[in-house]
Specification:
Blueprint: H1 7-12, H2 17-31, H3 33-51, H4 53-58, H5 68-80, H6 99-102, H7 105-113, H8 130-142, H9 144-155, H10 160-180, H11 184-201, H12 205-218, H13 226-232, H14 235-259, H15 261-270, E1 272-273, E2 279-280, E3 295-296, H16 298-314, H17 329-349, E4 352-353, H18 359-368, H19 373-389, H20 401-415, H21 417-431
Antiparallel strand pairs: 1-3, 2-4
Length: 440
């Protein structure tokens, strides 16, 4: 008897490995269709606006490119050459953790292999070829935030139409971080944080810890959300969580500090910013003065983390029922809203503001609003407005700071509070009170 290759599979019901793998890929592409499309559109629009119609509209001879990206690419190139001592020396301008350079190593290595210069754009470098390689790559890794948002929206039970709107609104907000300012580390860091929250909502604390640790290594601003995570953990898991989360940033910082202690510690602890270049705030006059007209932002960022710790303690009792359990959609939505509120503290206490500092709040607030059409539409509109209005060059300690803080407050209000009140109102009227069970 001759047995064909399809015979055993038909008898046993087995699926060939290649077919199963293809079906898995197709299923993933179908589930993440909206962030994929949003990423492709964002790359296309960004490349077109920077190299084609942008210069035509403005009449500029050179391409309008983000200034900040080039220093981080220089740091990534040094890292690719194992020059750890040069990570925090000019012209890198690196002030965060080394993970910001790590994520750009593939692009920097490819640019170097092609023999393309990383010279900063300017009068003598109007059309840098490095941008044609770096831009699609840095936008693609920035899109980690879009995919994380879609995964959380799916977990929250949002239908495909709402997830499509979320992807579009999130991509508009992401433009300011990736294309306008060239800070993929902010988007990648928040994306990893969001995946960490998703893992935590499924009671997978070890995975969450590694993801949050990777997020901190890439962009330490996500440290401000760590107190919220710790208060929702079972007490016996806190030490293990902290150990895992600390491992990636500590290893990277230790390697950089061992190679060049002075430059590393100076950059990471002081985190200089320039009020004459960016937006001064009411805190600027209190910030320690550094050379070259800069002020130290590090102490105020530590203050924001301290305030976040105090706020998390207030939620300790309310969230204890959720510790160690799989969260329902309401609990996850509430945690995302509080995460957005915690991230807003960075902007509230910042001595010098830059437009892209606002983005993490907008990104997380949009996810928190995704379950309700009215809230999603309103939050999307205000997020887009803030994204574009924040690019204006108003100076003075209140001229830019005050409207932006008001915008963040409105964003948080629209993303969560009205929806919560709307749901509670009928029950309160019928029962004569408000059910306070569960995390608030």
């Amino acid at each position: 008897m001759v047995v064909t290759s399809s015979g055993p599979a038909a008898v046993t019901g087995a699926v060939p490995a290649s077919l199963g793998s293809r079906r898995t890929r197709e299923a993933w592409l179908s589930r993440r269709l909206f962030p994929l499309l949003a990423t492709a559109v964002l790359i296309g629009v960004s490349m077109g606006s920077s190299t084609w119609w942008g210069p035509l509209i403005t009449g500029a001879h050179g391409w309008p490119l983000p200034d900040d990206l080039w220093g981080t690419l220089a740091a990534a190139k040094r890292l690719a050459h194992l020059d750890l001592a040069g990570l925090y020396t000019q012209p890198t301008g690196l002030v965060g953790f080394p993970g910001a350079a790590v994520i750009l190593v593939p692009a920097a290595a490819l640019i170097d292999a092609l023999g393309i210069s990383l010279q900063h754009p300017g009068p003598h470098n109007l059309h840098p070829a490095a941008w044609l390689v770096a831009a699609p790559y840095e936008i693609a890794i920035s899109a980690a935030a879009l995919f994380a948002a879609d995964a959380l929206a799916e977990r929250l039970g949002a239908d495909r139409a709402k997830r499509a709107v979320l992807a579009a609104a999130s991509a508009v907000a992401l433009w300011g971080v990736s294309t306008e300012w060239g800070h993929p580390e902010d988007a990648a860091g928040v994306g990893l944080l969001l995946y960490g929250i998703l893992a935590l909502s499924r009671a997978k604390a070890p995975r969450s810890a590694w993801l949050v640790g990777a997020a901190i290594a890439v962009q330490p601003v996500v440290l401000i959300a760590l107190p919220l995570i710790l208060v929702i953990l079972e007490p016996r898991r806190v030490a293990g969580y902290l150990l895992r989360a600390a491992t990636p940033p500590v290893i990277l910082l230790a390697a950089a500090a061992a190679a060049n202690w002075t430059a590393t510690i100076h950059a990471v602890t002081r985190q200089p910013n320039w009020p004459a270049v960016d937006h001064p705030t009411p805190w600027t006059s209190l910030a320690p003065r550094l050379a070259g007209g800069a002020v130290a932002a590090g102490p105020f960022r530590a203050l924001a983390i301290g305030v976040a710790c105090a706020g998390a303690l207030l939620l300790w009792r309310r969230w204890r029922a959720r510790r160690g359990r799989v969260w329902d959609a309401d609990a996850l939505q509430q945690f995302l809203w509080w995460t957005a509120a915690a991230l807003a503290l960075r902007s509230v206490f910042e001595p010098v503001m830059v437009a892209y500092y606002l983005w993490p709040v907008l990104a997380v607030a949009l996810i928190a609003a995704v379950r309700d059409w009215t809230r999603l539409a309103a939050t999307s509109a205000i997020a887009a407005l803030i994204t574009f209005v924040s690019q204006v060059s108003w100076h003075g300690p209140w001229a830019w700071y005050a409207p932006m803080m008001a915008g963040l407050a409105v964003t948080l209000f629209l993303a969560r509070l009205p929806y919560r009140l709307a749901r509670l109102a009928p029950a309160a009227i019928a029962a004569g009170g408000v059910d306070r069970e569960g995390p608030k």
